[in-house]
Amino acid sequence: MLRMRTTRLPAVLLAAACATATTAVAVGAGAALGAPSAHAADPGGQAFAIADPRITESSGLAASRQHPGVYWTHNDSDDGPYVYAIDSQGRTVATVTLRGVEPRDVEAISLGPDGRLYVGDLGDNLGGKWPEVWIYAFAEPAELHDQTVDVTRYKVRYEDGPRDAEALMVHPVTGRAYIASKKQGGGGLYQGPEKLSPTGVNTFRRIADAPWTTDGAFSPDGTRLVLRGYFSATLYRWKDGAPSDAEPLSTPFQRQGESVTFTSDGRALLYGTEGKDSPVWRSPLDDAQLPDTVEPLRSATAAPSAASGSSDPAAPASGAAAPPSRAEGKDAPAGTGDKVLGVAFLAAIAVAVFGLRRKKREG
Asked: In terms of Cα–Cα distance, which of 199, 187, 50 is closest to 122?
C-alpha cells in the first residue's frame, strides 16, 4: 500500500474484532467437544518465514503450479516491479522483474489456468480516487532464477466507480478474473469479462457482497473461494460462477494479515502477514470444507501421507517445535487453543478502547 497508511484501525474494525472473537470462541468450543477431525492429525502451524530482507510488506501469495513447494509473493508499496519466488523454507529462489512496469500499489497475485501469473495493481488508499487500476500478466517462469520478463497490461475499471481493493482471484478452470473490494462495513465481489482484453478497458461488475477483504484465493479445482481480512476469513462454495454457503474460518493471529492461498493439494490454507521475517501459517481444512475433488483423509488420527493424498511441501514437519506464544510477541498458529487466546486478546483491546473513550466522555 501507499506509505500514508496508518496502523491505527477504525472503530468499526474493533467492533468486528469483537464479533469475530465471539464466533471463533464458539467454534473453538464446539471443535473441542466434537468428534476427531483431520486437525487431530494435522494441527497446522508455521509453514515458513520469509527471510528475504527486501520483503517487508508481503501482500499477496500464490502457490506455484510448475514448482511444488514454491510460492509467489510481492511487496505492496515503494518496492518496484518485482515478484519473488519463495521456497518452503522461506528462502528467495528467484526475483522476477516486470519490464516497463511502474507499479502504484500492488496488492495481489494469482495463478491462472493458462500458466500465467496475474499481478493486481489495485490499491487505492485515497478512498476511490483512481479512475482505473491495472492487472499485469506474465508466464510463470519454467526455471527459477533472477530474470526480467515481458508483461501484458490490462486496464481495469469498475462498473459502479473507483474503489479500493486488495484481492485478485483468477479462476483456475475458467480463467475469469475476480476482484474483492475493501470497504468498512463490507465491500463487493466483482467479475471481469470472460476474457481480459489488452486493448481498451476491462469493466468489472459487482456480482455479490463481500466482507472486509485483504486477499482471496480459489482452491486448485475452483470449487472453493476464500476471502480473508485482518481478523477473519470466510470460505465459500463456488458454483455456476458465484459464491454460496459462506462459512467462517479460524485464522491465525497475525500482525497485519494480508495474504492467503490454498496449498497445491487443496487441503490447507496458507496465511501471510506483512513485516520483516514475516511468518506464513498453515491451517488445514476440515473434511467438510475440502474442495470437491479432494478426498478426506482416511484416518483422522493418521498423519498425512502420500497414500492419503497429501502432497503439500508446506506441511509442518513431524515433531516440529511448538509454535511461539503471543507472550513472545510473535504471530500465532491457527490451532483451536491459540485461536481462542488470539480472539480473546482482540476482544480485550476493543473493550479497553471503548471503555477509555466512555470514561473520557463521562469525565
From this structure: 187
